[in-house]
Amino acid sequence: MLWLLLLCGALGGGADRAAPLTFSMLQRTRVSKGDSVFWGNASLDGRLSHLLVGYNVTQVLPLEPPDTWARRQQEVTTYLLYFGQLVKLFSKERPINYTQSLCCRLGCQLFPNGTTHSFYEVTLNGTAFLTFHVPTATWERRWPRQDAVATFAQRELMKYPKTTRDLQHFLNTTCVGILQAQSAGTGKHSSRSHAPLVLGLILGTLALLGMAVGIFLCTGGSC
Fold it and tell me: Signal sequence: where (predicted)?
């Protein structure tokens, strides 16, 4: 899920040596009049690997065998359907007449000298909202207004291991491990073994974040 600016295919030998390997995901969630719309994608080393449109996740690269991927698709669809139903329920109690757009961008980079960088950035309606500080596994507010909506979302996310320690482990260990395998020329094997964690953890984490923000917005902020 993502807008990646990947440096694969950079011009010149020196540019190639400076370009990091990148695994990046982008997911967008739009909530309008009680309806939730999802879309996004994921790319590994400049190649589109997964595509999310509505409740349908497509595996573009053959990272998992068909039977395993079929189970993965069902898990993701079930999770997103649950989120959509929850938003509908709360919107009936406190309807809002405007659209809310949530964008989550996350991933990691492996540089030629062996150093790494992981990131998780969230925007709400095009404005920086939250970031995940990977070294300390903490969520930090980026909302320009110190109002209750960012505070509520931050507090909710800090309650769940999947949005703190598990996410930290994914970004620092699993994500980087995928890139290290790519760099060593064994990326196919690594991608196949790690793909379940990639989709299960990432999409689950994003849905939790959308749930925390969506509940607040759709209930009028009774936090």
Answer: 1-15
For residue range 203-212, what is the model confidence (pLDDT) as tens digits? 666 666 666 6
Where are the domains positioned within the chain?
21-183
The residues, any chain, with a CB within 8 Å of residue 172's CB and separated by 6 or more, are: 108, 116, 118, 134
Q: Which CATH superfamily is domain 21-183 in?
A: MHC class I-like antigen recognition-like (3.30.500.10)
121-168 pLDDT tens trace: 988 888 898 999 999 999 999 887 767 778 888 888 888 887 888 889
